[in-house]
Amino acid sequence: MARRHLAKQIRELRIAQRLTQKMIAKRADMPQSVMARIEGGEHSISVDTLNRVAHALGKKVTIA
């Protein structure tokens, strides 16, 4: 459940900024196919990868 919620948030942020998966993947130094799996909720995401994706979207990861 949490993975799908996170995937949806990442996708919505990317679309709101009018960015493609390829653009975010390049900024986050990962293949576009990994970005697609992350957004599809099919890929478990490490904290390091989440931080790279967040940075690529101009966001920070905060754990409260």
UniProtKB/TrEMBL annotation:
Source domain of life: Bacteria
One GO cellular component this record assigns the protein to is: cytosol
Annotated GO molecular function terms are: DNA binding; DNA-binding transcription factor activity
* This protein's UniProt keywords: DNA-binding
Using the record's annotation, list all stretches that form the HTH cro/C1-type domain. 10-64
Recorded hits in Pfam families, A to Z, give: HTH_3 (PF01381)
Protein's recorded name = HTH cro/C1-type domain-containing protein
UniProt organism field: Candidatus Kaiserbacteria bacterium RIFCSPHIGHO2_01_FULL_54_36
